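Incident review: delayed structure delivery

Summary: a single-chain prediction request sat in the queue longer than the usual turnaround. Root cause was a stuck worker, restarted by the on-call engineer. No data loss occurred. The affected request and its eventual output are reproduced below so the record is complete for anyone auditing the incident later.

Affected input:
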Amino acid sequence: MASISIKTKLTFAIAAIVVSFAAFNVYYMPSRVEKQLTSMSVESLKQTAEIASHAIAATMEANRQTDKEKVWQGIEGIPSFAFCAVYDGTGRRVEATEGCPEWVDELAEKAKNDQVSETTSREGFLIATSPIPLRRRSGEGLLVLCVYTSDIQKVFDANVQFASILGISSLVLGVIGSLYIGSRYTRPLLELNEAAQQVAAGQFEEVHINVRTRDELAVLVKSFQRMTQNLKTNRDEIERQQRLLEFRVQERTRQLMETIWELEDIKANLEELVQERTRDYQKLQQADQMKDEFLANISHELRTPLNAVIGFSGLLMQEEKTSLPDEVQEDLKIIYQNGRNLLDMVETILDLSKMQAGKFELELKKIDPIQILEEVKTVALGLILDRPIKLIYSAPSWTATVEGDSVRLKQILVNLVGNSIKFTVEGEVEITPYIESGNFKVLVRDTGIGMTEEEIQRLFQPFQQVDGSITRRFGGTGLGLTISKRLLELMNGQVSVSSTKGLGTSFTIEIPLVAGST
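Output delivered after worker restart:
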């Protein structure tokens, strides 16, 4: 659907207003004026006839000639007067002015029968009839008063002429107003519309719009020109930024390509490194397998002579003391003890190897940890002998049941208590069992050499001790705590440690209690 310009709409609106006003003045206004003039004339003539009828009745009753003449003079002085006739109660014409036509008698006879005042028009006359109230005579008379309608027509023609002039004037003024508005408003709006279309098409050249007014249209044009200038500035800035962005994209693309090439080189190096590490890993697996085989073989090879050494030294120690010198007895004790230590070391290394290979198994069952602590106490007293160390342990009055391996749990406790005794030159070692949060816990506290935080971090690593001097001074392989920690984890337990250098160390183990065991 084609759009209609604002100029056309405005022209149609002005034309509709002007045509409506002209039609009102040419057609509706004359008809209305004619009706109003006729109605006013009829009403005025009717009122005049009624007044005149009362005046004539008074003169007829008084029968004074001078009064009658004055009344007739007043009637004849009515504007546009044509003629007048008076009829008595019998309908006979009593008096009449000159020029009274014969048809008036017929009109009077009809009005006499109706006995009402009425007005009618006929042959250029406007006629009014009014009853004359006669008191002394029988019946009522009738007054017929007639005026010319030519004066009414003159007034009507003057109004029609004025309305025509007014309609033509309004038409001329409408055309002039349309041309004025077109010059002042429509043309700038059309130019503004054309400029807006140019801007929409991307043409931001200088916009020239001629505005002769100083109203809102001028403000609109200035605002549009500023907007166009801002759009042009923004477009130039966008183009500049776009060129800069393209340059940066190209630069980043170049850098990205260089990075991709570097990544390709790194990828190739990584693939080569992975292959190399894979080969190393395979070699390590082979070495680990060989280690396991070696440990199994060496443990077997070591166990046989160690068992023989331990067995024969034990047999010799059972001989009567008189059969062997004291020096030999002491040497046999040393041989027996070192053999036992060496066998324990082999067993420990073999256990660690099995754990690392995932082949270590526990015999889990319900056990009484308090009974195991009694056995550990006996071992601890044998380790202390005559050293200035006090062992603190009191068997609790309550009982507990945990699920674990009794041999391995004893091994863990002996290792912790043995370490406390070994690293305490003088002081005390305390063993405290207790129950907390559904777990059976044992605190092993000593007043030994203690450790720093850095030393605690290395405490549970295989073959690690605090430093080399500890190994030389106190001995050991550094595997006891590692194996103890892993054994506890296999029994769903854990071990924690806190220590202060020079003041002592506290180890706490915990194992879940069997439900309903306490």
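Verification: The chain has a mean pLDDT of 79.
Action items: add queue-age alerting; document worker restart procedure.
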